[in-house]
Design goal:
The protein is an alpha+beta fold. It holds the Pfam family WD40.
């Protein structure tokens, strides 16, 4: 039996169907749009400068290839194994991959099969692979093994070139050392550390072992020279040798090698932090140095006795780390200066600032501070640092090599003339020393050449990718995360400008400091979306992006269900993510990013290729709270002290965005709340900018206040129309004057509980700290500007239940356990601080002086009347774990906002521990605390034309929906009787009102990885969807957007974007063409062309690529594999006169550019012709071998047949003779 109120409530909602057009279950389909991040730690990198593609591998067997902004493809190798080595054959689309099981796989990016590259070949290697090397002119991979040999893998044939294997060259050298008295264990197997092909002579292969380096002659199959790098007794070396070892001969272990671009000199890194330099024609090292000191292989008096003069008992070890990796870069002579200047001045769109010499990130100079001269080279060094050195990648800039004029043209091997040695040593004196600083020690780096794949893939780089170790300042999360950081910087460096940070592809930005702790998916209004993209066009977006241009992407839709019309999907959608580096980032995931751009009516059709990344990072909106906490103005916040002393304990707890007013509230783990607003950048001076910003904010506040103050109950609004004469107060129309007495002009604070924190004793306004004077790190760009901070009454613990709710009309509410703070953002002013121990005042008939100390589980701002109050005022609904619900009413009294002294409170068992609440009007629209609903409330209060126009007490105005872990309930007018209920939920965790075909439905996610859609207001199940994530016991944390898309955060490594309306949505990845067959491999530059003649004097005549290929392949090389590569999406071949441009209407070009383009086209045609002739020769040679073997087989068969016939004839003759003799 229903009571009278319950019966009236049931009659009021009976027949209502808010979800009438959304009840069809076929309108719901759960589909994964894409996965964000790498999925595990980055473990390997490789770059193809011809196709401009970056490949990365992860520790769990995932491969990703990045090209232009919309080009990205990922796939798994088939098992969760670590990717250890990657190598491109530049320009061919073949990617070599070696995993931790020493399986070599070759993927063909010219053939895509079901959205992933085709595995062209695979081979389990016989030894542990330690390094991988390739060359664009050779279809081979050189794989160094732990057994000291180098296997050669034939990419064209998909097999090993058995006859080309390089044996362990250091066995013989170790035997010589043993005979000379060096103690080396007999069972020791020299390990191949690194392999590098000579930059100008393909016949020479540099193989590094632990004890030294050997130069292998491919054509003659022998070692030309061996190098040992010896530190004589007394020489300091890397400084890691104790006094007992210092006066003995030392051979530091080799860790890496790198060729100088001219091929005359190579550098060798050592385990003691030294770098040795040797000439390719001399067995003796030219110089051995550390980063800061040359000739450490020479003894000085200071090295021998300096430490004794300091009164130290024994020599201290330097603790220098090994040199882990080297890369030696060269630059085109005619363009190095201009490109260096352009790289620094134009990459970021603004002129860089001068460095501070006192800063730790300043690049010191070892020589002149002038700009580098043409022909200089740069050696990039990973490691070799002392414990006191700043972490980072160090670079030494060397002058160009000037050959001596009187040096003889020929000489014997292993010995070079003194003038030549002096000239080589002069070219190894650094001109300057540069530093790319990192927050933690770097672990790897990768230079990105402009377009040349030669010179060890380090020629003329324009960017440098650096991976770093775990940052101890970041918190350690309980779940798996990718702790290695990834950074990108412009290249080459400069002495007068700080390096420019480049933006990585989106999937690489979720590691290290970008580890995501929480993320939300939000639909925002179109005007707010345009405001967020102000000053952010494609030029700004591409200006600081990593220079990747490879591949093409075209839009593609998912298959649409028959009989269903694709829904309209034009709502802007963004992701708001929080990260361990205390940064809040924004990502655009609107569907239009995956759709072809539409041309304006009457204009030319646009290119249908996609040009934006998905998700599109809105980097200009990144807000780092560290910039706020390091400022002295924020010293009153507990978070600021913790950030300075123990930053690893500080995390972002909650984030709330006001979508229309563009205000952002962030709650930290200390309970402090920091507020910011989106501001426009300005090119004027900072003072003018601040004045203009303050004026604009005042105007905005005045406009909002004028609307809100219309709700003032002190008197009529002068700008409002005259109020009509009202009838006497009745039970259906409560008196406004009596209602105004419910509000007081004093501020509310609660009584403190025993043992409360010191912040409980603060006055109300002491809970607020003004942060508006903190300068923005990017004042000339749009971004978030700090406004203020709120000190919470109590610091939350790791298990505390926290809530944060920011409205679009300027009110903030936050809770931690049972503490509550309410603030007015227009002051800003704190309206309420409610702490444990306060007796809550009850409403009429709802219980009086009821005390409850249970945790607050939900906060909700709304503009709606309740059963006991028909006024459309802003209200805050507070739900506690016990089921107690309090409704705070706000109104403006005398231009100042106050909370009502009379709090409506009620309790329901089905509301206990509700984590989500929603208020709907009688038409099914959600009554949010938005400016639009505020305008409707103003219109409602000013529209008193008749007595019937006033909603009496108890009239149907709203429906309150609550969701806890097991129950969904609907209540009449918030504090009225229950009208509907759904029980039996299996661990509900997240709920949101979403819209399907314009109708609202309630989406609820359960712990068992299910999403259920409920109709409104009857709460009937409409559809059920399940995540395909069987390996996880939970669906993780879910955030719904209003249009039904959702983001799933299982852990920092598994973040996935889904949609519940997977009907004809744009597909990701789109239709891709990764490898472009129309891009030829450029010819090797002639900058070091004179080196060939120098090397030929030492090692004989040079060898071409075709000759070396024939030698490596051997006489029994099988024919190449027949491949059907996908080239349909590529543009058709053009003639030589038109191949210099790719558009149908080329721009006028200077004559020099046209001639150069025609020459490049001719070179490309010649290269293709030569390649075709080489393949034809291979085919003919193979056919000739087959025909020759067939002729040999035929002759052998004839000989065997003849012999067999002779034997049979002899047998018959002998048998007939014996028969005749027997018969006689």
């Amino acid at each position: 039996m229903f009571s009278g109120k319950a019966r009236k409530a049931q009659e009021a909602v009976q027949g209502l169907d808010f979800s009438q057009t959304a009840r069809d279950a076929s309108n719901y389909a759960l589909g994964q749009l894409r996965e964000l991040g790498l999925g595990s730690e980055l473990s390997a990198m490789a770059f193809d400068p011809v196709q401009s593609l970056l490949a990365v591998g992860t520790a769990e067997g995932r491969l990703l290839v990045f090209g232009g902004p919309a080009v990205e493809i990922s796939w798994d190798v088939g098992r969760p194994v670590k990717i250890r080595h990657l190598a491109w054959r530049a320009g061919s689309g073949f990617l070599g991959v070696v995993d931790s099981k020493d399986t070599l796989s070759v993927y063909d990016l010219g053939r895509l099969d079901k959205g992933r590259p085709f595995r062209d070949s695979s081979l389990s290697m016989r030894s542990n692979i330690t390094c991988l090397e390739s060359h664009p002119l050779l279809p081979f991979l050189f794989a160094g093994g732990k057994d000291g040999t180098v296997d050669v893998y034939d990419l064209d044939r998909g097999c090993l070139a058995r006859e080309a294997r390089v044996p362990n060259l250091w066995y013989a050298q170790e035997e010589i050392l043993r005979r000379s008295g060096v103690q080396i264990e007999r069972r020791h197997i020299p390990v191949c550390i690194d392999v590098k092909i000579h930059p100008t002579d393909l016949n020479l292969l540099l193989v590094a072992y632990e004890g030294g380096v050997s130069l292998w002659n491919i054509a003659e199959q022998r070692a030309e020279l061996n190098w040992e790098f010896i530190i004589p007794p007394g020489a300091p070396g890397g400084g890691n040798d104790s006094e007992e070892v210092l006066f003995s001969e030392r051979r530091p272990v080799v860790t890496c090698v790198a060729w100088r671009p001219d091929g005359l000199v190579f550098a060798v890194g050592h385990e003691d932090g030294c770098i040795s330099f040797a000439s390719v024609a001399d067995e003796l090292a030219i110089d051995i140095r550390t980063i800061e000191r040359a000739s450490v292989n020479k003894t000085t008096e200071e090295d021998l006795f300096g430490w004794q003069g300091q009164g130290e008992g024994q020599k201290k070890l330097s603790g220098r780390e090994p040199v882990f990796k080297l890369a030696w870069s060269g630059f085109p002579e005619e363009t190095m200066l201009s490109r260096a200047a352009a790289a620094w001045s134009g990459a970021g769109g603004s002129a860089p600032t001068s460095p501070d010499p006192t800063s730790s990130t300043f690049s010191p100079s070892l020589g002149s501070s002038t700009a580098p001269s043409p022909g200089t080279t740069i050696l990039t060094i990973l490691g070799g640092l002392l414990p006191s050195d700043p972490p980072g990648i160090h670079l030494l800039e060397f002058p160009a090599y000037a050959a001596p004029t009187l040096a003889p043209t020929t000489t014997s091997k292993g010995n070079i003339p003194a003038p030549t040695r002096d000239a080589l040593k002069s070219s190894l004196i650094p001109l300057s020393h540069h530093l790319y600083p990192t927050s933690t020690p770097p672990e790897d780096f990768l230079p990105l050449p402009r377009n040349s794949p030669y010179y060890s893939n380090a020629y003329d780089p324009t960017a440098l990718i650096i991976t770093t170790g775990t940052n101890p300042r970041y918190p350690v999360l309980p779940s798996a995360q990718a702790t290695r950081g990834i950074e990108a910087w412009s290249f080459p460096p400069s002495l007068s400008h700080a390096p420019i940070s480049l933006r990585l592809p989106g999937s690489l930005a979720w590691a290290g400091g970008g580890t995501c702790t929480s993320i939300e998916c939000i639909n925002i209004p179109t005007l707010s979306y345009r405001r967020m993209l102000h000053q952010f066009d494609m030029e700004d977006e591409m200006g600081d992006r990593l220079p990747l241009r490879g591949g093409k992407a075209w839009p593609e839709r998912r298959p649409s269900r028959q009989g269903l019309t694709p829904p309209v999907d034009n709502m802007p959608r963004i992701l708001v993510s929080s990260h361990v580096d205390l940064t809040v980032r924004f990502w655009d995931v609107s569907s239009h990013l995956l759709l072809a751009p539409k041309a304006a009516p009457g204009s030319a059709p646009l290119d249908s290729k996609l040009s934006k990344e998905f998700p599109r990072p809105l980097r200009h909106l990144d807000w780092c709270l560290g910039d706020v906490l390091r400022d002295q103005r924020s010293s009153g916040l507990e978070a600021a002290r913790l950030w300075r002393e123990r930053p690893w304990e500080l995390e972002i707890e909650k984030v709330s965005l006001a979508e229309e007013t563009m205000e952002l509230a962030v709650m930290l783990s200390t309970g402090d709340i920091i507020i910011s607003r989106l501001g426009y950048g300005d090119k004027r001076d900072p003072l003018s900018v601040e004045y203009a910003r303050a004026g604009a904010e005042d105007d905005l506040h005045d406009n909002v206040n004028s609307a809100l103050e219309s709700l003032s109950l002190d008197g009529p609004d002068p700008s409002a129309p005259p109020a009509p004469i009202l009838p006497p107060p009745s039970s259906k129309s409560p008196s406004l004057s009596s209602h105004s007495r419910r509000f007081s002009t004093r501020r509310r604070s609660s009584s403190t509980a025993t043992g409360a924190s010191p912040s409980h004793d603060l006055e109300l306004q002491d809970h607020y700290i003004d942060l508006s004077l903190i300068p923005s790190p990017r004042p000339f760009h749009d971004g978030w500007r700090a406004v203020g901070g709120f000190i919470f009454p109590s610091s939350p613990s790791a298990t505390s239940k926290t809530c944060l709710e920011l409205s679009d009309i300027g009110f903030l509410a936050a809770s931690s356990e049972n503490s509550l703070i309410v603030a007015d953002m227009r002051g800003p002013e704190v309206l309420l601080v409610d702490t444990p121990g306060r007796a809550t005042e009850g409403g009429k008939g709802k219980g009086k002086a009821r005390s409850d100390s249970s945790a607050i589980t939900s906060l909700k701002w709304t503009i709606s009347p309740i059963s006991e109050d028909h006024d459309h005022n802003p209200r805050l609904i507070v739900v506690q774990a016990s089921g107690l619900t309090r409704v705070f009413e706000l109104a403006s009294v005398g231009g100042t906002w106050h909370l009502s002294d009379s709090i409506s409170s009620f309790s329901h068992d089905s509301v206990a521990s509700s984590f989500a609440t929603f208020v709907l009007d009688k038409h099914g629209r959600e009554l949010l605390a938005s400016p639009a609903n505020l305008q409707l409330a103003l219109a409602h209060q000013s529209n008193f034309e008749s007595r019937d126009g006033i909603e009496g007490k108890g009239a149907f105005t709203s429906l309150w929906i609550t969701v806890n872990s097991t129950t969904i309930s609907a209540y009449f007018n918030i504090d009225g009787p229950r009208t509907a209920q759904y029980e039996g939920g299996q661990g509900f965790e997240k709920a949101e009102i979403c819209y399907r075909n314009g109708a609202p439905v309630l989406m609820v996610q359960a712990r068992n990885r299910q999403i259920t859609a409920f109709s409104l207001p009857d709460l009937v199940q409409v559809a059920r969807m399940t995540f395909d994530a069987a390996i996880h016991t939970s669906a993780g944390r879910i955030s719904f957007s209003a249009d039904g898309d959702l983001i799933q955060h299982i852990d920092p490594l598994r973040i996935r974007l889904y949609t519940t309306g997977d009907i004809a949505r744009p597909a990701f990845p789109p239709r891709l063409e990764i490898w472009d067959p129309t891009i030829p491999v450029p010819w090797q530059t002639g900058l070091f062309g004179g080196v060939a003649s120098t090397l030929s004097s030492f090692f004989g005549a040079g060898h071409g690529a075709a000759e070396i290929e024939g030698i490596l392949g051997g006489p029994n090389r099988p024919p190449p594999k027949v491949r059907q590569r996908a080239t349909a999406a590529a543009p058709p071949p053009q003639s030589s006169s038109a191949s210099s441009t790719r558009t149908s209407t080329p721009r006028p070009r200077p004559r020099t550019q046209a001639v150069q383009a025609d020459a490049d086209s001719t070179v490309g045609i010649i290269a293709q012709t030569q390649q075709a002739l080489a393949q034809r020769g291979e085919y003919l040679g193979y056919l000739q071998e087959r025909l020759g073997s067939m002729a040999d087989d035929a002759a052998k068969f004839a000989s065997e047949t003849k012999k067999s016939a002779q034997r049979e004839a002899a047998k018959k003759t002998l048998a007939s003779g014996w028969t005749s003799l027997w018969n006689k």
